[in-house]
Fold:
Amino acid sequence: MTGLHRNLIAGEWLGSDGAPNLNPSNTNDVVGIYARASQKEARDAIHAARAAYPGWSRSGILERHTLLRKTADEILARKDELGRLLSREEGKTLAEGIGETVRASQIFDFFAGECLRLPGEIVPSVRSNIGIEITREPVGVVGIITPWNFPMAIPAWKIAPALAYGNTVVFKPAELVPGCAHAIAEILQRAGLPKGVLNLVMGKGSDVGQAMLDSPDVNAITFTGSTGIGQRVAASCVEHKRKYQLEMGGKNPFVVLDDADLTTAVEAAVSSAFFSTGQRCTASSRIIVAEGIHDRFVTAVVERLNGLVIDDALKPGTNIGPVVDESQLRQDVEYIELGKLEGAKLAFGGNKLQRETPGFYLEPALFTEATNEMRISREEIFGPVATVIRVKNYEEALAVANDTPFGLSAGIATASLKYATHFKRNAEAGMVMVNLPTAGVDFHVPFGGRKSSSQGSREQGTYAAEFFTTVKTSYTSS
Structure:
């Protein structure tokens, strides 16, 4: 990419100041120069969304359907190109980058269909000669704040339903991944996006994000990111009496029982904990293992980790790419040192690596002899670092799994229908996986968690309507 990639405000590409976007696999590779919006530009974007709202909220469902469908089609047609862009700026392997891009296309396609099937209700009144109609209407201007770890999929699952249900959007992507956000905005504009319906404002959270939090013209905010920032978003939204939807941290458990198929358990645990460099809110960084299978499981996991290739995300054969940036790498290393100090045994990895190109490479780290009270077992690390906690039986495993302030995803490996059924009912998480990785979800069903992981209504699928619409009940006397 060459030149300055600008913000999209009121249908115009604006902005003069920019910052380089670097490839974490090769810091000599500048992905592009992307504008950074000021607070004034962010306020201008909000005003543009407010001005566009009356027209878009009353637009025809076929117009919205066509826009989203064209967007889905272009993303899919360009999956290799966009997947490569994603991998260059975020560090996922190329296969993961392309896969996420395909997922973004599927999400836009799903919500294109939702434009045509938004239901309402006609119900009888308890009074004679009165009819009742229950309908859904858009909430207004929606602020969208997305993280760096899924730069195509998460913006898609927020933007697509916002537009499908007639809202206008102010979109702030994470500073580390402006490229994918800019590409989505360009594609939407080519698909026929009216001016001001979606506004892209790239830049610092202290400028762009704060302007969104402070504005009385933003009617709802959907946020995915850290717990600390999420709390600030919630406080601001309560002050302004606006809707909010928060997806935050996770410390997801993966339970392995004595009767589990060892191969299935190892593959699910390694995929959950280490693929995508462990940089997923649904990653499992607490692996809770029954004592009867513990030693065999650890041996098999170490053997599997030994066979993984950690290298440039774009190289064929790479299993795990780099950590996203220097700050995240430093945090991961600090937690690895903390784990040693807390008394856990580093059974594998944890070393910074050198490759052909300068990048943020880290060997996956597996701790054993950990307890659930250690900080490495309680705090979200957001890197390729996992602890193994030994337990006596299923009952202890369930108690340890639920002993966390988070509640996004939980998994279990077992051949027992009894234990699988009990775990699905009693795991304190928004999503439960049986003999599957804790990370990896479908796009047409609800996504979200409990406790400190999530607040507000669920994302994705038909459940997205709960956040992006408001219910109106109308009475008519005949």
In short: The chain is about 40% helix and 25% strand. The chain has two domains: 4-248+453-477, 252-434.
